[in-house]
Amino acid sequence: MNIKYFDHAATTAVREEVLKEMIPYFSLNYGNASSLYGIGRISKKAMEESRQKVANVLHCEPSEIYFTGCGSESDNMAIKGVAMANKEKGNHIITTKIEHPAVINTCKALERDGFEITYLNVDSEGFICLSELENAITDKTILISIMFANNEIGTIEPIREAGLIAKKHNIYFHTDAVQAIGNLPIHVDDFHIDLLSMSAHKFYGPKGVGALYARTGVKFERFLDGGHQEKNKRGGTENVAGIVGLGKAIELAYQELDEYNDKLTRLRDYYIQRIEKEVPYIKVNGSRTKRLPGNANISFQFIEGESLLLKLDLKGICTSSGSACSSGEATPSHVLTAIGLPAEIANGALRVSIGAENTKEEIDYLVENIKQIVEQLRSISPSYQEFIKGK
Ligand code: PLP
């Protein structure tokens, strides 16, 4: 079956050009980047070129980029690294209720080690409140970590303003930019960012490689004990092919950013407009204006997003739902709960995340299938039947 892929926020396919650059580093140029002889130096050079490419995009120095194994590792390295290196100064960290588990669970782990975490609320569109952020700061606050853009609802946070607050209070500012890199221009100085996490597989690079930006002078502890790799911050032989892929992918993404964003925004708005016009009892989740170009998160009332997802899968369509189904019981997503959705609306959420290869025809196919499936699921939904009777 010809797959229609609408789950680019989960992962993306490696671009041909990226794969082509990576391949020699699996076999031909297999040298360990720490080795001093020729093929080692080839790997080292390729890695440093990638570091430069990442630095070009973020407008920082290559020495401020650390390669990691994934976005989750970058988040762990930033948050635990800063926490451990600055615990003499304070034990308080501020984050939000809508972070990815890579941040939330890292903070929960630190709570078990005696750190205090403030989880900021968000409003009905998913935005943090800047005055709540400022009021949460104490003389023990050592780190503020706020995601650049949310992975479920696509809301883009006021990062520049939050960064400025952190700077004013002399507190390190970390942003999980895993969903933003490849979609939004990011200038670390303009946004007052001290640490930033990214992951290659979200922008048409390979899985299993990420990067952390850490501003020169930021005190953070090493993440992985081992060799001297990554300036002693992350031991372990580097994933040279992956790093080459990350570098190529980020370079291409930012060369084509405007065109890519225009395309995704057009397709996303077309999808949302069609659903709003053609399917009753729906709710668009997240911000209408400040959202990732490819993200559309819509709740379909009276049905389970999970059931819709599974039926779309039978039609060759890949999407994501807003709930994690465990033992037959759907738990509403923490993000949709935080924006104030009641469980029955949160459980009807479907996230569509559009990417480079999608077309208008594919969106039409998606919408037609959603219309049919929603109608069918509602026809057997007791809550819908009750609602209709009561009208
Ligand atoms: N942070 C955000 C916002 C994400 O969306 C993801 C992945 O979905 C991650 C972190 C984790 O990235 P990785 O899958 O590379 O560990």
Task: Show the helix and strand layout.
Layout: E1 4-5, H1 16-22, H2 38-58, E2 65-68, H3 71-85, E3 92-96, H4 101-112, E4 116-120, H5 130-136, E5 141-145, H6 159-168, E6 172-176, E7 195-199, E8 210-214, H7 229-232, H8 240-255, H9 257-278, E9 282-285, E10 295-300, H10 305-314, E11 317-318, E12 320-321, E13 323-326, E14 329-332, H11 334-338, H12 343-346, E15 349-353, H13 360-379, H14 382-390
Parallel strand pairs: 1-11, 3-4, 3-5, 5-6, 6-7
Antiparallel strand pairs: 2-8, 7-8, 9-10, 10-15, 12-15, 13-14
Helix pairs in contact: 1-8, 2-8, 3-4, 9-13, 10-13
Molecular structure report:
The protein is α/β, with parallel strands linked by helices. It has 2 domains: 4-11 and 257-390, Alpha-Beta Complex (Aspartate Aminotransferase, domain 1), CATH 3.90.1150.10; 16-255, Type I PLP-dependent aspartate aminotransferase-like (Major domain) (Aspartate Aminotransferase, domain 2), CATH 3.40.640.10. The protein contains 14 helices and 15 strands. The protein has helices spanning 16-22, 38-58, 71-85, 101-112, 130-136, 159-168, 229-232, 240-255, 257-278, 305-314, 334-338, 343-346, 360-379, 382-390; strands at 4-5, 65-68, 92-96, 116-120, 141-145, 172-176, 195-199, 210-214, 282-285, 295-300, 317-318, 320-321, 323-326, 329-332, 349-353. The strands form 4 sheets. A 7-stranded mixed sheet has the order 2-8-7-6-5-3-4, with helices on both faces. The radius of gyration is 22 Å and the shape is globular. Bound molecules: pyridoxal-5'-phosphate.
